[in-house]
Specification:
With about 280 residues, this protein is an alpha+beta fold. The protein is built from six helices and 15 strands. The relative contact order is 0.14.
């Protein structure tokens, strides 16, 4: 696979792509992004990703191009890199000013950057992981897919020190999400996930899993879940674009389904794999 990236209208080798030191994305993390999985040259749930990009842009007051132009950009990115399976990264910032200033001193031209990286697509049931509960230290607009990820990175590092794969975040005992994922819980056959409010980034995979569960006639509820509820759960799994559906074996000292993937989680994983096959065969 080639390694060409898109930057403000140009196709460049990744090592040659440069942005201004005065770019607001560099100085203030004043921008947004999306990560879009690609299976066999076909972007997965692209419209949902781009609609969320538009919502994030509107939330921060960033004027962006029509969504059709980003659809074309993703297609061209796949073609010029001859990518088969990959993860598209699309980032938009307010652009570069003449100097560092909290508020732009002049009208700016937004910076648009896109790249694609290899993606090892799974068709089996992933090994269940361990997660650790942590206080959610991030800002209160987690519904915006902002490039400002310092809090997420700090939590990931703290999680690594606890020999866990991902944090399970909470605010005063109410579970929100992970540093880079959403969580689902299974209780007596019922599927629960925290509501899509300002405290979480409602993942596109999260949205798709809810749709798959409804197609399977599962009882799905977007409702607050608390740390005190964990002992009553039968299964737990997390979702993200890069991990799809990942079973959770353990949260702190609590082990779920003997540390193995539970039946509801396994059913949803198989349904997710089927949806990928349908995309590829279209």
């Amino acid at each position: 696979m080639a390694n060409l990236v898109y930057l403000n209208g140009d196709w460049l080798a990744a090592s040659s792509a440069k942005v201004s030191v005065n770019d607001r994305g560099f100085l203030f993390a004043d921008g947004i992004y999306e990560v879009i999985p690609v299976y066999q040259r076909r972007p997965f749930l692209l419209n949902l990703h781009l609609e969320r990009l538009q919502r994030s842009a509107q939330a921060i007051g960033l004027a962006i191009a029509p969504l059709a132009s980003y659809q074309s950009l993703v297609t061209e990115l796949i073609d010029v890199n001859d990518s088969v399976d990959g993860l598209v990264y699309l980032q938009l910032t307010f652009g570069a000013d003449s100097h560092r200033n909290h508020l732009p001193s002049q009208p700016l031209t937004p910076t648009c950057y896109a790249s694609i990286s290899p993606f090892n697509v799974r068709w089996d049931i992933p090994t269940p992981v361990k997660v650790a509960t942590m206080e959610d230290i991030r800002w209160l607009r987690c519904d915006i897919k902002s490039t400002s990820l310092l809090g997420n990175v700090m939590l990931k590092r703290a999680c690594q020190q606890q020999h866990a794969d991902e944090p399970l975040l909470h605010r005063n005992g109410r579970i929100t999400e992970g540093a880079s994922c959403n969580y689902f819980f299974v209780k007596q056959g019922r599927l629960l996930t925290p509501p899509a409010d300002h405290l979480i980034l409602a993942g596109i995979t999260r949205t798709w899993v809810i749709e798959l569960a409804q197609q399977l006639a599962m009882d799905v509820s977007e409702t607050p879940v608390f740390l005190d509820d964990l002992m009553t759960m039968d299964e737990v799994f997390l979702t993200s674009s890069s991990r799809e559906i990942q079973p959770v074996a353990q949260i702190d000292d609590i082990i779920f389904h003997q540390g193995q993937c539970g039946p509801v989680t396994a059913q949803l994983i198989q349904a997710f794999h089927t949806s990928k096959r349908h995309l590829i065969q279209e």
